[in-house]
Known about the structure:
Number of domains: 1
Distance between the termini: 56 Å
Strand order of the largest sheet: 7-11-6-1-4-5-12
Strand content: 15-25%
Largest sheet: 7 strands, parallel
Number of strands: 12
Order of helices and strands: EEEHEHEHEHEEEEEHEHHH
CATH architecture: 3-Layer(aba) Sandwich
Amino acid sequence: MNIVVCVKYVPDAQAERGFEDDFTTDRVGVDGLLSELDEYAVEEALKLAEGSDGGEVTVLTIGPEAAADAIKKALQMGADKGIHVSDEAIAGSDAFGTSLVLAEAIKKVGTPDLVLAGMSSTDGSMGVLPAMLAERLGLPQVTMAAEITVADGKITARRDGDAASETIAASLPALVSVTDQINEPRYPSFKGIMAAKKKPVETWSLADLGVDPGSVGLAGAYTAVVGVTKRPPREQGEIVTDEGDGGTKLAAFLSARKFI
């Protein structure tokens, strides 16, 4: 089974994050890492490949030079090879532009049996890209899967809702996004870290994919950020000295803020 996993390099949530002069997210001057939610997709791909004869996992990402670290982590986990689409014209792309680049990259790879993705990214948290990508590739989509099985040329997934769970099946090839309930991602072993150094990673540009630079980036985005404001520092809370009326003051505080 040949599987392509789409992963994203995101700013570290513990780092000081900011924006470029054009109000796009700063992805160069900040520490980054493989999106945590994408680790579940990588893990599931590895499990499926290990359970099939001749399975291969290719990791695909878009981003600046540092985005290669996302591929590196996936290769250390056990993926077989990586593809890094890097082009300055991609900076500022929205979900439409990103899905276009990913779709063309997957077409260049060939026809994988399965395309896997996380349920969303930890920086944008939109969760729409898997559906957009499936539409561009003309593949059946199974999103938000909490459990998947592959047999007899089809994939079956369990999706858990607030009130019930449902089972969805689709013929292969297909695109599936997984939730953080599906597995427990493995940690890279020392053997995996050393082996990753010899695994192939290709770097492609928009020209390699035949994508018009004007259709991606800020120029091709359907939305635009016109301003940003830093979150104000947290103010010190109000201290109430209980002089017999502490309960009354607490109730008044909660009532004023519509908590009660």
